[in-house]
Design brief:
The chain is mainly α and about 450 residues long. It has one domain (about 40-415): Orthogonal Bundle (Ammonium transporter fold), CATH 1.10.3430.10. About 65% of the residues lie in helices and about 0% in strands. It has helices at about 1-25, 40-65, 75-100, 130-150, 155-180, 185, 195-215, 230-245, 255-285, 290-305, 315-335, 345-365, 380-410, 415-420, 420-425. The radius of gyration is 23 Å and the shape is globular. It starts with a helix and ends in a 30-residue tail after the last helix.
Length: about 450
């Protein structure tokens, strides 16, 4: 037994030594002649982070599936899958080029269909294809956020259409302004990992979509339509929390130990206090420990810390998370008062906290950046300009897109389909078939080429 333990210890030590040597000898960023070379460590780190970000799609799927009713679970899962695929196609065709290709202050003008890209991304030590994969995962997340706001009444082919357009032009153009060397970047606007670029853009798309769609047929404002499975929502929340450890630290785009360590800690701290404040607010108002509010509080904290994560202290992250939980909780009430039907609470989490996260850079940013660290109102003003730019670009274009989709192909399912559930009508299968009664009228899938009787569009 002792020999077995010694052998196990030696194996662990050997593996640790090999990994240490790997990090030491593969880290150089420049060749001797000054030409950039690929760093294996940086590449592996960015790809690993991208894998975590991609896996967040599963988190969104489970979260939204838990918050919708059982008759629409298959549909929301299908939307999450196809959001990813359609967004990817749009991002390949033009999105990546518009966002990161060399061009002007407003959009890139090269690298369409990934043609003409350099082997190594300029200014980094990773292959351009690795950089593309990381950025595609971000783009897919923005599209998926919108599906939650529009859940339980959106026509499936309309979902395919808007996801493609988001990846093709809506997300990339604003992304170029911030991350592609555009005019906001030149102004000094800071959004480290996407409180605005990813989350606010996705939330604005979804907000426009849900307004154009209108409320669910049986939705009464002031009364909650409960999701069917809180366990799925819990699983989705934890997957998203895990994915954020790729989302934020991966945006460093290099395996730099000190920055990514700070980013991991600030990310986790904000999620922690976001869940706490939302949970206690729920108890204060209802005398119930509403775990669904804790889920959204944690996610709100994660969204809020995404922009300032590399620019604030861990202590500030605790405060940012606390405020984000409050925003997540009262944001749900605000949506009800505005009579905007948001089935999963996506806009308070991604929209309102996306705005707050952007402003948090100008408040808590260290090294003379934020208001509380001697920076005055300069950075805060720049951040406000960025929010206005995001709103002015994303929201009107999203309304135009959804009105166009509604006119061309229809945006909403028929009243009969909505009442019976989209799963059987559009996908031919229910998530819980053993509990489904006789629904012969919806036993056959409604194919995309067939008109849907009774459409309200």
């Amino acid at each position: 037994m002792k020999r077995f333990k010694m052998r196990s210890v030696r194996r662990v030590v050997n593996i640790a030594v090999i990994l240490a040597l790997f990090f030491v000898f593969t880290r150089p960023a420049l060749a001797q002649d000054g030409e950039p070379v690929v760093s294996a460590v940086d590449t592996v780190w960015v790809l690993f982070a991208a894998f975590l970000v991609f896996f967040m799609q599963a988190g969104f799927g489970f979260l939204e599936a838990g918050f919708v009713r059982s008759k629409n679970v298959v549909n929301i899962m299908a939307e999450n899958l196809m959001d990813t695929t359609m967004t990817t196609v749009g991002f390949i065709i033009a999105g990546f080029g518009l966002m990161f290709g060399t061009g002007n202050a407003f959009f890139g003008t090269e690298w369409f269909f990934l043609n003409g890209m350099p082997d190594i991304y300029p200014g980094l030590t990773i292959p351009t294809l690795a950089f593309f994969f990381f950025q595609f995962a971000f783009c897919a997340a923005a599209s998926t956020i919108a599906s939650g706001l529009m859940a339980e009444r959106t026509d499936f082919k309309a979902d395919l259409a808007y996801s493609f357009i988001v990846g093709l032009i809506i997300y990339p153009v604003f992304g170029h302004w911030v991350w592609g060397g555009g005019w906001l970047a030149e102004l000094g606007y800071l959004d480290f990992a996407g409180s605005s670029v990813v989350h606010l853009v996705g939330a604005y798309v979804g907000l426009a979509g849900t307004i154009v769609l209108g409320k669910r047929k049986d939705k009464k404002f002031g009364h909650t339509i409960r999701g069917h499975n809180i366990s799925l929502a819990a699983l989705g929340t934890f997957i998203l929390w895990l994915g954020w450890f790729g989302f934020n630290p991966g945006s460093q785009l290099a395996a730099d130990p000190m920055p990514i360590s700070l980013i991991v800690v600030t990310t986790d701290f904000a999620a922690t206090t976001g869940a706490i404040s939302a949970m206690f607010l729920a108890y204060l108002h209802t005398r119930k420990w509403d775990v669904s509010m804790a889920f959204n509080g944690a996610l709100g904290g994660l969204v809020a810390i995404t922009a300032p994560t590399a620019f604030v202290t861990p202590q500030a992250a605790l405060v940012i998370g606390l405020i984000a939980g409050v925003i997540s909780y009262y944001g749900v009430d605000l949506m009800e008062k505005l009579k905007i039907d948001d089935p999963v609470g996506a806009f308070p989490v991604h929209g309102l906290n996306g705005m707050f996260g952007v402003l948090a850079v100008g408040i808590w940013g260290v090294d003379g950046l934020g208001l509380l660290h001697g920076g005055g109102f300069t950075q805060l003003g720049i951040q406000a300009v960025g929010l206005l730019a995001c709103t002015a670009w994303t929201l009107p274009l999203s309304f135009l897109m959804f009105y166009g989709i509604r006119a061309v192909m229809g945006l909403r399912v028929s009243a009969d389909v909505e009442e019976a559930g989209i799963d059987l009508a559009y996908h031919g299968i229910g998530s819980y078939p053993e509990f489904i009664g006789d629904s012969k009228s919806f036993a056959t899938p409604v194919f995309l080429s067939e008109p849907i009787p009774g459409s309200t569009d």
